[in-house]
Amino acid sequence: MPDEVHPTVEDPRVERARYWRFSGLPDTELLTARFVTTSFTRHTHPTYTIGMITGGIEEYSHPGGRSRVGPGGLAVVGPGEVHTGHAGIPEGWGYRVFYPAREVVEGVGRELGMRGTPGFRESGIDAPEVSRVLVAAHMAAERGERLTSSALLRRGLAMLLRSHGREPVGNVVEPTARPEVELARELLTGALTDPPSLEELAARVGLGPFALNRAFRSRYGLPPHAYLNQLRVDRARTLLAAGRPVGEVASEVGFADQPHLTRHFRRHLGVPPGAYQRALLSP
């Protein structure tokens, strides 16, 4: 008798992640992942982050507090909002994520009569029908279906904005940083490869180290050293998308070597830089 064939059962402890772009969804990046032990440090994205939880529970902090989101729910974070991410249960979580540029969401909002850059009333959102449509859009993109994926994404975003979106409140202007803090940010931006110490940075802007660290974090959501790593990762993404070798990128953005770039890159994006680059540059 032939050997009995048993169906393959996926090991729930195995992590996987794929980060990519799809020509049918301009100005939008995508992630499909299952994480168990991966933990995202405090970080930001220049885009919106709209994650549809497909299994397990994700727990994360964000400007509004802390959220736990399970299947059928969405984890939504706006551009520039500092957030984290880790498993809310030992089994981890699986999700599909859209990272649409600000202009993409603003365009959908305008069609709904919304003005300005839309925000959301909450971050962890229980909206199974919206999640179902957005998951279908994500899966269509994975299959290469340009029309279906783009139509479903716009439909899902419109549903999300109608049910949980909000316009900017009045003419509220983003608070202006203290001149010393803004100067510190400019100095860090121009010194990715040779940054000053906190003491040196504080002396150059005329504040004490403790006062600068506290004021910087209050304004930007991250202390100076973490903000510097965020700048480095953002710059690395641009260089990797342009096809630069990973080792060269690590040196150019100020990391000691490729393993240092890989560690920080994974803590921000969930995938190593080489995999990120291959996915973006694949035909």
Number of strands: 12
Shape: globular
Through-space gap between termini: 46 Å
Indicate the CATH topology of the largest domain. Answer: Jelly Rolls
Helices and strands, in order, run as EEEEEEEEEHEEHHEHHHHHHH
The whole-number mean of residue pLDDT values reads 92
Helix content: 40-55%
State the fourth-level CATH superfamily of the largest domain. Answer: Jelly Rolls
Provide the CATH architecture of the largest domain.
Sandwich
**Radius of gyration over alpha carbons?**
20 Å
User: What fraction strand?
Assistant: 15-25%
Number of domains: 2
- Structural class of the secondary structure composition? alpha+beta
CATH class type of the largest domain:
Mainly Beta
Strand neighbour order, sheet with most strands? 1-2-9-4-7-11
Could you name the ranges where pLDDT drops below 50 across 5 or more consecutive residues? 1-9
Pfam families: AraC_binding, HTH_18
Keywords: Activator, DNA-binding, Transcription, Transcription regulation
InterPro entries: AraC-bd, AraC_XylS_family_regulators, Homeodomain-like_sf, HTH-like, HTH_AraC, HTH_AraC-typ_CS
Organism: Nocardiopsis alba
